[in-house]
Amino acid sequence: MRVAVIGAGVAGLTTAKVLLQAGHDVLVYDKTPDVGGVWSETRRYPGVTTQSSKAQYSLSDFPMPKHYPEWPTGKQVQEYFAAYAAEYGVDRVLRLNTEVTSATRGVDGRWTVETAAGAEVFDRLVVANGVFCEPLVPAYPGVEEFTAAGGRLLAGTEFHDAEEARDRHVLVVGYGKSACDVTVPISGVAASTDVIARQLLWKVPRKIAGVLNFKMLLLTRMGEALFRYLRLRGFEKFLHGPGNGLRRNMLNSVGSVSVRQFKLKELGLVPPGHMEDIVRGAIGLASEGFFEGVAEGRITVHRDQTITRLFARDGKPFAELADGSTLPADLVVCATGFGQGVPFLADDVQGKLFDERGNFLLYRQILPLGVPGLYFNGYNSSFFSPLNAEMAAVWIAAALADAVPLPDPAEMRRAVVDQLAFMDAATDRHHCRGTKIIPFSMHNVDEVLGDLDLDIKARVRASHWLNPIDPAAYRGVTPALVARLATPEPEAQVLAFTPSVEESERNVAG
Asked: pTM score > 0.90 for this model?
């Protein structure tokens, strides 16, 4: 088939790579001049690093370079994905600097993709534009007066050089990882650096008690099992039953360590609730140097505050906070989250994509209900986004060959609605319109591969209970599917052999 992929981030690149290996004709569109999505040079801000360590943020068959640090920089991640595209020939099917203005489905079921350069027709369409594609900047009253006085208001993804903050009074709005990340380099050059935090969030130390890498706790299957999933399996039933007290103590002890390690009481920055509530806000890795900057006075955090208006005083830009106080504000950087949009899809298609609250209705985070020939990838933001995207790409390749045993439409809809209702309760609706699956990343991988009967060995999955998830353990999944799809139909077979994932891994290794 001829397949269009919109987006050249990790989801778009993995989709293209898998579909090319399955024999499809693929074209990848992206409006930026380089691959990488959120890691593009046009979008990354100073201080950005991965939240997961490099091994866990790698693709299954393309490890990150050994010389990369434990938490690679944004530039390094972009270079890694560019190398991946070159290694697997995806760079030859890229159409960069090309924004898709519309993608419409014809009566014949084919898709017409339009750009400024013209229109092309495809058999199938994969949306991989990313759930962090539309930065949200609050509409503050008084912004015209503020900008007329020389003030600047911009999204974090629009702030590319810390020198823009030199000798300026800077306000960073937000308290998530991106807000804290960008605050650190700003505080090194700015005249003043104030963080406006509507809500304090729990932060996980990169090294708990200065020794234990956080991946040993949260990037394991045990770490994921500490949070109650919709369907409990095996040892999870113990953890959320007789072992519930042990489970709570495990999580909350990390919170106690964080309070001591970062001296949060002394800084007045202890978040409300307990560490076990972390999933209800955002599971954030502590930014290196952030709390140290607060302790040294270079960073001031205004907790439980919002900006109510921007204005000018004596010809200079200011911001007023909810408590009535005012701050000089030459530059306001908003790390206030993202919207998830697909403006290029027609209204009739969009009408089928969302529920009444605007949540995406996607089976397995991939398949929209009632829109044939359309798939999504990357709408499964997680600790292991590259692995989740890669396994979703495998599922899509199987679906193109009608090799995914799907439930009937009513059952699929029930599954999607039940999943959204569960995530509403589990995350207090902080799931990016149904597109964030943290902290249930591996549950999603298991479900996707379970549909295909392509999961890795049980003993390898068991090893990931106490050891960090190793994406390399999944390197045989794509070759196994490609071999299966290339095998003749049973009635046409004389002698056919479909390798298992384990046998494909041996073939890859040897």
From this structure: yes
